[in-house]
Write a structure and sequence with these properties.
The protein is α/β, with parallel strands linked by helices and 158 residues long. It has one domain (3-157): Flavodoxin domain (Rossmann fold), CATH 3.40.50. The protein has seven helices and five strands; from the N terminus they run βαββααβααβαα. The chain has helices at residues 14-25, 63-71, 73-76, 93-100, 103-108, 126-136, 147-157; strands at 3-9, 29-34, 49-55, 80-86, 109-114. A five-stranded parallel sheet has the order 2-1-3-4-5. Helix 1 (14-25) packs across helix 7 (147-157). The chain is globular, with a radius of gyration of 15 Å.
Length: 158
């Protein structure tokens, strides 16, 4: 049986929701791990496929996610890899991927996608809410999760 790990870092829950939805679209044994809640080291050698996901705030993915990728680059590049980001600025997707993930990891990934995002203003800290409102000028129309793209991602990993 195929064993898949979806390891992610979420700030306000959008990435966790996307990871949970993605899990329903994958075959085999799928394990979800939130790096912000993980209490022990994940044994990567137990998995055939590893999916890495995170959100982008002010151009950056979570420090924990970036460090996880850098610290495990050798193990990760020996696996079937998929990488996804949750962000509203899809036109900057390639820039966000290249500035937040090692080039060696990106080149070994079977697929990379931007799943979109949601503006969860009710959960945001004041500074994040202020930045989001300033950047979007109050237009939250770009903030949508694309379930079609998540489905494509799952198909491309098969």
């Amino acid at each position: 049986m195929i064993k898949t790990l979806i390891i992610y870092a979420t700030k306000y829950g959008c990435t966790a929701d996307c990871a949970s939805y993605l899990k329903t679209k994958l075959q085999g044994d799928v394990t979800l791990v939130d790096l912000n809640k993980a209490t022990e080291q994940v044994e990567l050698d137990k998995f055939d496929t590893i999916i890495i996901g995170g959100s982008i705030y002010v151009g950056k993915a979570s420090r924990k996610l970036r460090e996880f990728c850098e610290n495990n680059i050798e193990s990760l590049t020996k696996k079937k890899i998929g990488i996804f980001l949750c962000c509203a600025l899809t036109e900057q997707a390639n820039e966000f991927l290249s500035t937040n993930f090692p080039a060696k990891l990106l080149s070994s990934a079977k697929t990379t996608k931007i799943f979109g995002s949601e503006a969860r203003l009710d959960k945001m800290k004041f500074i994040d809410k202020t930045v989001v409102k300033a950047v979007t000028k109050g237009d939250f129309s770009k903030f949508k999760i694309s379930y079609d793209i998540i489905n494509e991602f799952a198909q491309e990993l098969k």
